[in-house]
């Protein structure tokens, strides 16, 4: 159960603790005069709730604790499940002290799959809320002589920036300048009218930009990237520690953006890279120091695009900064969990709307009985279809498609370099079987044929994205698509920032740091079936499981829980000695953080030692490394490899070396 305990004042009794569990807890003592009115009201409200509701809560937990899932009817299961979910949400989202016996009771009530899937994937919680412990790492380093040196620019990742409504349809007009993504306002917008919310989150399939009469824009400033909703931090921990070191709003800039857009459309619609260039020049001019860029996840894709864009002449679609601009303005680029070779799950996300978690619907159906086959099944199915249509309009997902072809992702002839399932290398990326047939009759797709399948399947429904990213395709598939979409040639976007073809900036004084987690299973290959559904003819084959490597239609390998190791680490290792991709001999340092989840009582769900793709943002070791970089203490950040990335890199390098020169680096 993801609950953070509040640190209580000396002498104050924590609610729910004390003598006998049969006695109602005593009301909280009166807040001291030094407390704010907000804190006083919160304490009073908690006291009233304790007096009036202790008996009801106690009897509620007894009933849930004693609930027999196996013998209850379907309707009772649904009601009980809803109660448990609401209880979990209430205790997880609220920053309150929860007695240990209550936590144990609620957690024990949950089926094991909820703990292993849903709760295990929740983002990190606030770090020691209201305890005065914020910025400890930064303050400690400051006492040791460290101080702010390089201005910091934050480039957030996918889905981690708040989006607010500036123009909407009639159903959403009352949400003007309220967040449709992020903060509790998102939940209000979603549950008040789910169809309306989904329409506002969607982009125009023909332009890749705003639908008619709808404008969502990124929330500017640090408040747009610090917290997703109250209690769930994104950049908040790092910002707090930068503050502890001595940084403030004048030396930290959040380069927030609409994460739905492709990098190309960020500049076309919002002038994002032009503004980013101007901000960096201003920070450099005011401080006299070069800037450190911190990017997380999709932010890495955006930043690498920016590096090539800013060096490219305006006549060729770039920013016109010239070859020396990056070296003159950028001290360090810190890539946090960047998908440099793309993310495998983007293909199933676009193909069927699956985000892996949808596979748990099979488990949900088993727990709730046959009720999912009726009204609830139709409701969930319709929502998945809406989500599927929305995903496909987001250019950002297309920008994170896997790249590198069979040399990196494998094929039927040579197998995959990073997957060994029970002694047999998986020789496909997507295994597809017809509904009703056995898995032995499946057709195996390589990464290239799976990508071609995706583009040809969606060419008519999202023509803009298919055209913009057609450089992912082989010549034969591209030729077929040109016949279906005559305008495809004019819509192909510049392929700036491609990690396998675009060299690092000519910046010998810049340093690159690749920081990422390992030791957590990540999606790598998929088993699908073709069903009779016009919108979602390809669906995850959740019946396929084998040897603990294949789980409900998904093969997993080492990674950070979202991105496989090869995409996290290969390019950074390859940059070190490759003069074609690193002509200026830029210093590249890789540091891996092995995933280690802590028990709840000592910081679980705070990311202190985690390598998880999201929770790594709270990893104290990584935060200390980042502070060393921005403080100009590069000597404190040394290479650390704990995974098999070097062996994996050597295998891939050998594949490229033996390939046709046109396919190699």
TrEMBL record:
Q: Where is this region: Disordered?
A: 1-44
Gene3D superfamilies (UniProt xref): alpha/beta hydrolase
- SUPFAM superfamilies in the record, alphabetically? alpha/beta-Hydrolases
Q: Pfam families given for it? A: LCAT
- Gene Ontology molecular function: any one: O-acyltransferase activity
Bias kind Low complexity: ranges? 9-44
Entry's InterPro entries? AB_hydrolase_fold, LACT/PDAT_acylTrfase
Instruction: Output the GO biological process annotations, alphabetical, semicolon-separated.
Output: lipid metabolic process
Asked if the keyword Acyltransferase belongs to this entry, the reply reads yes
Keywords attached to this Swiss-Prot or TrEMBL record, sorted alphabetically, are: Acyltransferase, Transferase
Q: Which domain of life is it from?
A: Eukaryota
Instruction: Give TM regions.
Output: none
Q: Which residues form the signal peptide?
A: none
Name of the molecule in the record: Lecithin:cholesterol/phospholipid:diacylglycerol acyltransferase
Q: Which organism is it from?
A: Ostreococcus tauri (Marine green alga)
